[in-house]
Amino acid sequence: MKTYLDCIPCFFKQALEAARLAGASAKTQKRVIDELAKALPEFPLTSSPPEMGRIIYQLINKITRTKDPYLALKDKGNQLALDMEHALRKKINNSHDRLLTATELSILGNIIDYGAKNMLDVEAEMAKILEEENRVKTLADKDNFHYMQFREGLGEARTILYLADNAGEVVFDKILIEEIRRYAGNKKIIYAVKEKPIINDALIDDAYVCGMPEIAGVISCGADAPGTILSLCSRKFLEIYNRAEMIISKGQGNFEALSLEKRPIFFLFMAKCPVIAREVGCNVGEMILIGNSA
Amino acid sequence: MKTYLDCIPCFFKQALEAARLAGASAKTQKRVIDELAKALPEFPLTSSPPEMGRIIYQLINKITRTKDPYLALKDKGNQLALDMEHALRKKINNSHDRLLTATELSILGNIIDYGAKNMLDVEAEMAKILEEENRVKTLADKDNFHYMQFREGLGEARTILYLADNAGEVVFDKILIEEIRRYAGNKKIIYAVKEKPIINDALIDDAYVCGMPEIAGVISCGADAPGTILSLCSRKFLEIYNRAEMIISKGQGNFEALSLEKRPIFFLFMAKCPVIAREVGCNVGEMILIGNSA
Fold first, then answer.
1. A41 CA: distance to closest CA in chain B (Å)
2. What is the ipTM metric for this complex?
3. Has residue A93 got a pLDDT over 50?
4. How close A201 comes to chain B (CA, Å)?
């Protein structure tokens, strides 16, 4: 997906928030904004938003001399999600279609995002996830929620590559992978995280803390963009990507980076902004599960 | 009021909208954004938002080769407000405190603003104004709504300068001025509009179309900023400003431009963004009537 002009005000908003999170003084915050303004005219809109996001956050880290301003938020997100693990499993045990419920919960887990949603009260959102019975219902035949196709794909694929989005969300992904194994039998499933800190995206450490290695192979994609930009990924990752019979792509950033790719990808995310909603043809806040069958 | 860093993403958003309203192509819209980005580092945050707003809209007009992209919206706003005139008067006739109701309606009329509120459905908002009985109630003793002080000031002042905000809103201002005359007797009241097109701010033509000369003297402030920036105003206007025993300042832009001034100003506006809400100490969407007694 290309970058839209409407993304630009949001880039400035995100840069300001990240600078504040990094503890930057007002003067340094202004410098971040000014440097971003200077970089902007050079940036081609044909690139995807995660490509610009990567440049922005590199700039912020350089100016504020931080490496991982979201570390504390990520740790908090992991802990909150782990604290919810039992409740999430209970919800699945009580559901009519375990795989559907696990899929929906995994998409709802995508709410844990400090990039697009600002200053989100994570705890409140987490509680809301468990309360929102109405959202976790049979959406099987809805537009932008192609569950039957997804389930069929899971049944057929022998190897699955699962692209992580944010820390915390990993717990939800782990539970979905458990249900995929329960539904579709033993598969080779690889869970790919980012190589270096970028916003609140999951890294290897987050995957371990959340217990992912117990259920799937964990690798890094080799890149540090807030979305899987293939040209930045490692050769090892690209081999797995090209061979996987099904790819599960979590989050808006991965959709932005991969929406034009031709591999058999299913995109699972919450549509968090008007630009993405227009791109997909949905409402902001909608739960999306769309296939990209080659 | 100074410009906050949080105003900057909003500048880009407004620039994009204005460029689109001016019929700019995607390429020209990008040029507007890039030129704004280039100008940004040079802009001191000690200046008020209307000073930056003026520069931004001048830039847009230059790049898009338009002089008044908001003309059609202003005409529509005037017509809508004139269509409501009878209903507004009826509301005042049926109220317990005519002056209070006229004051509140005049502040609600400030909703007609295409700068801070984007793509507002004016007709829906207008209908809402008349329906919202709950909002038009006795707020006399509330924080940030100093009605008693305002009424007292009106009683004492012999000359009043009334600073206009947007087109359309002029009709609401005219009705308030009628009620001021009814309550406080004959006064010299001057209604000041902007000199040249800037966003949807009222100009001399708008004041005439809305019937303002029937009830008050109409002048231009001599400037073209979206707020009364005194250093840009005409000598004639400044003489009136300095001699007026009371100044009624409508809208957020005039508050941003004049909040630090020492003349006896009452600011009447709707708090439209988080930055102004923090500055005033109120909620977004709150009706504000605060004095600045020298």
1. 5
2. 0.82
3. yes
4. 24
